[in-house]
Amino acid sequence: MPTFRALKSLVRTLSTTAASTPELAGTAPPHRCYIFLHTPQPPSEYPAKYSTPAQRALLLRTAKWGGSVNFSWSKDQPAVPVRPPGEEEKQEYHLTAFANPQGKLEAVVSMENIDEVEEQLRVHTEAAEGTIEAIPANTDDVHLYVCTHGSRDCRCGDTGGAVAQAIRDELRKRRDFNPSDPSTRIQLAEVAHVGGHKYAANLLVYPHGEWLGEVEPTDVPEILDAILALPARPLGTDEIPICPRHWRGRMGLGKDEQIQLFQRICS
Hints:
Number of strands: 9
Strand content: 15-25%
Structural class: alpha+beta
Shape: globular
């Protein structure tokens, strides 16, 4: 029996949707800042609906000014061990946040310092808005986040897991061939539910702020080339989308703004 990925690929091959009526553009949730809380366990081990006291409290505070909070995992990112049952209120997290136009911010958050960290994130997000030209190029590495939250939706575990592995394989191949390859700038992590199961695999590209959907393992080399061709900074409101065929939207743009940008530049 065909796998889900095989059936999905067949549907995409047979589809003749016109570029002027994009299916994906405008489906990225509007946000001004995206915050990843590092966990020591991968999304494949998360329950279907995963939340913690610190995550809920930080989301409640940051959502007021356009923040969104999620969980991420990578064997290369720092993470605090999970507290035992009954001590969830004491859990600490390393976090990585991205805002437009300021780029990346790192911190450690817990219930004890959550107001202080929220203020730090807010100032980082709201400072110097509209001055993207002043942000130096290539000041950050490229961070790729793939949703592999299989218990939330099997499509994310299936296609998302395959894309995450394809990225690892492609990065390894490029680095083995050339230890100085530009792909050494790329860091890969897996994330919990981002919304849009039907668009799996979902790939988030930061600090650029681009959200990509319907990514298949065979798309990986082309997508990496497109990402590495650009400076590692948040993209402005009028810049060309990365990989238009997969483009769901951009940090800092509302739904209508995402659709209008796509139609104006890519249609």
